[in-house]
Amino acid sequence: MPRASIVVPAYNAEATLDETLRSLVAQSFRDLEIVVVDDGSSDRTPAIARSIGDPRIRLVQQPNRGLAGARNSGIHAAKGEFVGFCDADDLWRPTKLARHVAHLDASPQVGLSYSGSELIDADGRSTGLAQRPRLSGVTAAHVFKRNPVGNGSAPVFRRAALDAIAWRPAQETARDWWFDETFRQSEDIECWLRLALTTDWDIAGVPGLLTRYRVAPGGLSAALDRQYDSWERMVAKLTPLAPDFMARHAPAARAYQLRYLARRAVSAGDADAALARLRAAFAASLRPAFEEPVKTGVTAAATLALAALGTGPVDTLRRAAARRTA
Amino acid sequence: MIRIAHLVDDTNPGGVTRYLDFLSTDPRFGFAAHEVIAVEKNRAGAVQTDAHIIVSHLAVSWRGLPGLMALRARHAGTPLVHVEHSYSEGFVARNVNARRRFGTLLSAAYAMFDRIVAVSQTQGEWLVRRGLVSDEALAVIPPCVDLSAFRALPAPDGPVRTVAALGRFHAQKGFDLLIRAMRASSRQDLRLVLIGDGPDRDALVALADGDPRISFAPFAADPAAALAQADAVAMPSRWEPFGLVALEARAAGRPVLVANVDGLTDQARDGAIAVAAPTVEAWTTALDSLGIADDAAPRATGREEAAALQWMALAADVLAPQAEGRAAA
Predict the structure, then answer these.
(1) E-strand spans in chain A?
(2) β-strands B138-140, A91-92: how paired?
(3) Partner residue facing B277 (CB), from A167, A199, A200
(4) pLDDT digits over A141-175, tens only?
(5) A243 at B interface, C-beta within 8 A
(6) How do residues B111-134 score in pLDDT, each as one tens digit?
(7) Is A312's pLDDT higher than 90?
(8) pLDDT of residue A316
(9) Is-contact B37 B11, C-beta < 8 A?
(10) Which residues form the Glycosyltransferase subfamily 4-like N-terminal domain (chain B) (predicted)?
(11) What is the pLDDT of residue A307?
(12) Phi-psi region of A263 (alpha: psi -120 to 50; beta: other; left: phi over 0)
């Protein structure tokens, strides 16, 4: 039985899967299995998974269920004591798994170990941007407001912690759910926050940018709206679970979320959307302005410059605005 | 005869009080003489007793720590046992931000005791996992009361109509979640009765918003009589180190829906119905699927005897070193 499993949800990922899997088979920690979940791809995804030729790769195929459903099938199939996730377009640094295994071995109370991420572009080149989250003393409020786990290719879970948040909805007959498959976005943060709100497993990070996380350029306004809607749905779902917590932290978390979406709109060059989000962020809560004045100010400046001057002159600000949290 | 002193600082008419009433008077616990000593909050140091074993049912707190040290110092040769009625994984998840500091508190308090008694297997596993209690120092003894009045209730007749929720109207019990789930339920034949009182009463009434299927009843001094009026019981608690109501409901032959948390996880292994997700949707589904109560459901038999035997074994265990000491001398 391998000590660690890496779940790779893959949907029509022929362009990137090979590189992803090569980064995983090259992990310095060797006692692992890689569970590739082909989520109903119509391209060469399964063929690529088979072509690597490493016996530690297992392929699970299913009709399309979405990212959460693919991850859940991967967790269901995983045999390791630790379960990590790497989306089929992201990459792991060679020492990533070793660092998380050492962390989880040394800290029996940590249920979710994560790291920072370097952001890469469509060609796998570094963008110079990174997610450098807080690594210790993480509370549910931090998870909700700042999502230190960052992205779906950053965490390695202890299996016992995953199983503490498993459930089986009435319509599901085959296996449990860990991620909520009714979400098409925000399924990550919903899972991390549910872990923080309902269990006593610690969420903690290890230093280093151990994940290389691919960001798609742009981001249409409609897509950002959908992202915000799913975030609000996550809040609505978890509010009955912890009403006091939500009453206390939702306004600030909402402001952070809107600020993030304003930055995404700046990156996409959509001044109107950025302005609207920024206004909504300030209306929701002034906490981000107090807790992170520089970043909030840079976001505001970039938004206003974009609105006044167009895309050219704000490139510098834009990069500054996107630094640390894309 | 062995004398055991039980220290308690919560004399509200809740589960702990009823547990201590039971074990100090029930003949099945007659292997020892049990004395219940009411302790002023955080003043365990003032306790004077020459009992052979001292059992703390106190709530651990920073302010109470000096008192526990004094208790230990004053009774240096007496085995000290602590029963953890208050804290559990669910409690910490919902209430504690500074988890490391909280762990330090529990470790410091537990260090005063020879044994720590968990009130459920799940709570015990959490205490060990968090490094708060060693395997050797841990005992698991689920609390009990005299269940005969519950077992004497006839099984509910026909399909489940009335679901009862009993307990303090406080965030812990999750009755807000239950009311939301009931309001989302399409079953018009179902009734939900919330029995109790507490700080959240007005908020819960407001949440029910006049739904004619939901009603409120005052605190029940006689829980068996309250359960007689119900066909099923719901416990959507956010934390629950043990969950006496679930045990009583099972003894009464009532189907009982429980949150999948802390001691209620144990109860689900013993026949309660676990609602795995703490969401409105999951609870609505659970309410909607309550069918006909199984009149052949086991009635939590032998629990009183088991609790008595476990206490007897624990008493013998903590007194053994002293007995050996005397034999050697």
Answers:
(1) 4-10, 32-39, 57-62, 82-85, 91-92, 110-120, 126-131, 156-158, 202-214
(2) unpaired
(3) A167
(4) 999 999 999 999 999 999 999 999 999 998 888 89
(5) yes
(6) 999 999 999 999 999 999 999 999
(7) no
(8) 61
(9) no
(10) 43-148
(11) 75
(12) alpha
Place of tokens 């009765």: B193
For residue B274, give the H/E element and its range.
strand B273-275
User: What is the CATH architecture assignment of A4-214?
Assistant: Alpha-Beta Complex (3.90)
What's domain B148-288's architecture?
Answer: 3-Layer(aba) Sandwich (3.40)
The count of other CB atoms within 10 Å of the CB of residue B45 is 16
Sheet architecture: strand order including B273-275: B214-217, B191-195, B162-166, B232-235, B256-259, B273-275
- Which of B183, B167, B297 lies closest to B236, judged by CA? B167
B175 close to A (CB below 8 A):
no
User: Which regions of chain A carry the CATH code 3.90.550.10?
Assistant: 4-214
> Residue with structure tokens 């074994």?
B313
Of A109, A141, A196, the CB nearest to B130: A109
Residue extents of the structural domains in chain B: 2-145+303-328, 148-288
Q: Which CATH code for domain B2-145+303-328?
A: 3.40.50.2000
Chain A, nearest residue to B123 by Cα: A200
The pTM is what? 0.89
Q: Name the average pLDDT for chain A.
A: 91
Q: What is the mean pLDDT of residues A4-25?
A: 97
Q: Is the pLDDT of residue B81 over 70?
A: yes
Interface check for A242 against chain B (CB to CB < 8 A): the answer is yes
